[in-house]
């Protein structure tokens, strides 16, 4: 069952989500929620989904970056983004630690802001401590695009959207991104969106 994804302006995307209680983790309600989220993510499609994006103010995210989603990128683009497939997994009550500065700049989109993208500075490396769907402690050290996905999804649990972190001059429709910016190098992109001095 596909669930409607909340769009920007919906209050649930701006309020901090609450942690799941121990007795909730592994419950039938949460198992069903995860399954509905997984179906919604695949149908969208996207690489991550946070519970607030479907109207549930809970600290729960799912992530899956399938190889098929990367098929339109060249080997050079995949290498530049440090992007590799990531298997489906669930993170509950995650805590994130940035292990590098916010200095890696790429375009990002969001299922809650359909049709738009912007350059967002992110840390190249992060460490995440969380619980999985069985309530077991997991620790993830990620880099590259996986680290970007983790930062984006955990931001959702804090009421933060990528537009709060973006280089505002880079905000663009996907059509204009594909027409003007998709083939540009990282350096060309940053040069194009630096503020103009008059």
Automatic annotation (TrEMBL):
Cofactor: Fe(2+)
Originating gene: def
Sample GO molecular function, one term: metal ion binding
E.C. numbers: 3.5.1.88
Keyword Ribonucleoprotein: no
Lineage, opening ranks: Bacteria, Pseudomonadati, Acidobacteriota, Terriglobia, Terriglobales
Name of the molecule in the record: Peptide deformylase
Residue positions binding Fe cation: 110, 152, 156
Entries under Pfam families matching the protein: Pep_deformylase
Cofactor note (record): Binds 1 Fe(2+) ion.
């Amino acid at each position: 069952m596909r669930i409607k994804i909340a769009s920007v302006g919906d209050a649930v995307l701006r309020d901090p989500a609450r942690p799941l209680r121990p007795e909730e983790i592994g419950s039938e309600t949460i198992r069903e929620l995860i399954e509905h989220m997984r179906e919604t993510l695949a149908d969208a499609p996207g690489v991550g989904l946070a519970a607030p994006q479907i109207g549930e103010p809970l600290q729960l995210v799912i992530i899956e970056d399938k190889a098929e989603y990367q098929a339109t990128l060249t080997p050079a683009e995949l290498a530049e983004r440090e992007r590799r497939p990531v298997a489906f997994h669930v993170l509950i009550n995650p805590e994130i630690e940035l292990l590098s500065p916010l200095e890696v700049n790429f375009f990002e989109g969001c299922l809650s802001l359909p049709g738009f993208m912007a350059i967002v500075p992110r840390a190249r490396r992060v460490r995440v401590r969380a619980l999985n769907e069985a309530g077991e402690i997991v620790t993830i050290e990620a880099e590259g695009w996986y680290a970007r996905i983790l930062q984006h999804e955990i931001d959702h649990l804090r009421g933060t959207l990528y537009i709060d972190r973006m280089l505002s001059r880079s905000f663009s429709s996907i059509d204009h991104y594909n027409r003007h910016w998709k083939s540009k190098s990282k350096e060309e992109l940053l040069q194009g969106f630096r503020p103009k001095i008059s």
